Amino acid sequence: MRAVVFESFGGPEVLETVEVGTPVPGPAQVRIKVRAATVNPVDAAARAGAFGGEAGERVGLGWDVAGTVDAVGAEAPWSVGDEVVGLAYGVLKPLGTHAEFAVLDASAIAAAPRSVDAVRAATLPLNALAAAQALGLLRLSAGQSLLVTGAAGAVGGFAVQLARRAGLVVGALAGAGDEELVRALGADRFVLRDGPLDGGYDGVLDAAVLGAAALAAVRDGGAYAGVIPGASPASERGVRVETQEVAADGELLAELVGLADRGVLTLRVAETYGLEDAAKAHARLQEGGVRGRLVLVP
What we know:
By secondary structure, the chain is of the alpha/beta class. It has two domains: 2-124 and 267-297, Quinone Oxidoreductase, Chain A, domain 1, CATH 3.90.180; 127-243, Rossmann fold. The protein is built from eight helices and 16 strands. Helix 3 crosses helix 4 (154-165).
């Protein structure tokens, strides 16, 4: 099968689409015939060497997947032909979801949304799970206020929508051209990214990884949730600082699929590329300003 890999760290040019053996699922795993898989910043970070690794070691990319179950381990509660979405956790793995087939733990997948195609469905797992899990860390109640940084991005956009559903009063920090977008996602207040940042929020979900600047927007004794391990600021003024490392969770993913089918969550696709054009997708991501996800279609 074809898969996107790299063997040396660097820019998009280090990516190759190569022929590799088709993976075999273990007892509690399934193999998915990939119909779509997104390109995320974590893929670019791995390619650039942010997570270490050995030069010359073949590394596969891709966390999100939407596709069809192709083979099932003896202990996996799925059937060949099931349409699913899932999260293949891991920053340095021999094969990811940027391939024609991917093997995932059975507990990391959920039935695919019925209301959208596979390309849109593939944008859900990583970013919606990250938003939902980070929001859970904040432990805010209906009526309290939340600032979401990077609100026009994939994680931030889902966070805005999930927070509004939870009854929070949502401020959305984004660029000048994104006010209409974040208000459409449900933000009560637009906060200009380059403008003054007001304080007093009960919590901040820092999808833009602003760190101390975002922490300053939290009231004394409030809560801050980061989305990248090791990148959160130190606590001050009694602010509870939490960091969410996204985790595969098929049950939560199934709930998020339901929200997508009910129109609560908006699945945004920026552009699609073939596997052989993965380097072009990475170059586009590197340019910035992407609204929605870039999706690879084998």
